[in-house]
Amino acid sequence: MAQLFSPRADRRLRLGLLAGAGLVLLVGASGFAWVRAGAAWAVGEPAAQPIPFSHAVHAGGLGLDCRFCHAGVERTADAGMPSAETCLGCHERVWNVTAQFAPLRAAIARGAPVGWSSVSRLPDHARLSHVAHTQAGVACSTCHGAVEEMPRTVRAENLSMGFCLDCHRDPSARQRPASAVMARDYLPTGEPHALRPHGLQALRYEHYGVEVSPLTRCSTCHR
Ligand code: HEC
Ligand code: HEC
Ligand code: HEC
Ligand code: HEC
Ligand code: HEC
Asked: Where does the record locate the signal sequence feature (predicted)?
């Protein structure tokens, strides 16, 4: 019988298939490495902001407390943002009022907040409560890094589900006494701290004989 493909064509086909498979593997592996490295989470990348606000100047240099501008952290799920009036309260007097503050005046005139971009926003299906973490002795820097040293605010941790679960499986080692939650010079003692008496960790959820901690239950973080 006459050969349909010459041995050379056959070899070329094999080589082609091998190269194709190699390419698929390479794309997959680099995609995996990219996600792992945090590039996919925009870790370390500042967002475009209407005013070049600096935490290093205000929370670092001037030493303003985080709660001065993010008043919700101890009371509500949302940390909250400072009003334009909060900024002008100082900038009307202590500093020259320049063009870079125009968005503050526009916000006051519109009666709307300054449209800051977020570097921490979670997808809509996931939720986070600031008051729960503050009361449980989890410091801002655990999730946001050393914000008071940032000239431009960036995401310091990837804030992925794995990041959350890493702690939710056993938070005790990373909790501070509630009184030290806002301290910037806190040194970990290595001692596990007393937990909130009616906190989620105190509860255990029985389901078909399997104990599931409420802290790792899907509905704790997903709606
Ligand atoms: C003088 C007011 C002020 C103080 C004090 C302040 N912040 Fe902010 N913060 C802002 C403003 C304005 C923004 C929005 C602009 C930006 O992201 O840089 C912001 C944004 C943030 C964000 C990003 C939020 C997001 O949606 O991604 C985090 C995290 C944050 N602040 C944490 C802190 C922490 C922690 C402290 C204390 C160490 C602090 N801030 C102190 C005004 C303040
Ligand atoms: C407690 C007073 C105070 C408050 C409140 C305050 N600032 Fe400032 N801000 C200052 C001072 C003082 C400086 C000058 C710091 C310097 O030059 O060292 C400054 C500097 C700045 C600068 C120039 C920073 C730079 O990178 O050179 C910007 C922009 C600014 N502030 C925006 C804001 C915004 C936006 C808010 C509200 C979220 C705000 N400030 C709230 C006191 C304040
Ligand atoms: C357990 C992790 C965690 C801790 C602890 C934490 N945050 Fe956040 N923070 C987040 C996440 C995640 C978001 C985004 C929330 C969302 O998209 O619903 C966020 C959002 C914010 C925002 C944006 C708020 C807004 O209204 O847009 C600010 C400001 C902020 N955090 C400041 C703080 C400060 C100040 C502290 C300490 C008192 C703190 N955070 C502690 C994880 C944390
Ligand atoms: C360093 C530890 C730590 C990290 C990181 C952490 N958490 Fe938590 N989380 C806790 C502790 C501790 C509690 C409070 C448990 C209790 O009430 O006893 C809690 C409680 C919660 C609650 C329950 C709030 C309520 O209704 O009482 C939610 C929702 C939550 N965390 C979401 C998240 C999400 C989303 C992330 C990741 C972006 C995250 N957490 C990261 C330690 C952590
Ligand atoms: C401690 C909080 C927490 C718990 C508990 C949790 N998740 Fe998540 N999950 C998150 C956060 C935060 C994200 C969003 C991460 C992102 O994409 O920014 C997420 C993302 C997801 C996604 C989307 C993944 C993607 O690639 O976009 C799925 C699906 C999911 N979770 C399923 C689950 C299931 C199923 C459970 C229960 C077994 C669970 N989660 C428990 C915090 C949690």
From this structure: none
